Amino acid sequence: MSETVVWDDRGVATIDTGYLRSNLAAVYLLAAGNEAAFFDTGVNSALPRYLETLARSGIAPEAVRYLFLTHIHLDHAGGRGSCWLRFPTRRWWSIRAARAI
């Protein structure tokens, strides 16, 4: 991934979080209709990248309804606090919680 954001042909954005160096860790943004979801939150310092991606894509931050965490490591979930505060209409899902249901 040579760019900060790469969209695939299914409408999924891969966003480089900039964690430690370029192309090491990424989060994914999926938008459909009037809702959007992030898969993982990356690190706190990556939040501006997510907001820029949303803005350039015409997606309001309020459209982010879901934040999925694959696991709790800094590069995947370290930004959960920032995202929690910035995306007030969100719901959290984690793989561990989904297994418990």
Key attributes of the depicted protein:
4 helices, alpha/beta, single chain, globular, 101 residues, 6-stranded mixed beta sheet, 6 strands
Order of strands across the biggest sheet?
1-2-3-4-5-6
Q: Got a strand count?
A: 6
H-E order: EEEEHEHHEH
Please mark out the parts with pLDDT under 50 across 5 or more consecutive residues, or reply none. Answer: none
Can you give the helix content as a percent range?
Answer: 25-40%
What gyration radius follows from the Cα positions, in whole Å? Answer: 13 Å
Give a verbal description of the structure.
With 101 residues, the chain is an alpha/beta fold. It is 27% helix and 30% strand. It has four helices and six strands. The chain has helices spanning 47-56, 74-77, 80-86, 95-100, and strands at 5-7, 12-16, 26-32, 35-39, 64-69, 91-94. The termini are far apart.
How would you summarize the topology of this molecule?
Blueprint: E1 5-7, E2 12-16, E3 26-32, E4 35-39, H1 47-56, E5 64-69, H2 74-77, H3 80-86, E6 91-94, H4 95-100
Parallel strand pairs: 4-5, 5-6
Antiparallel strand pairs: 1-2, 2-3, 3-4
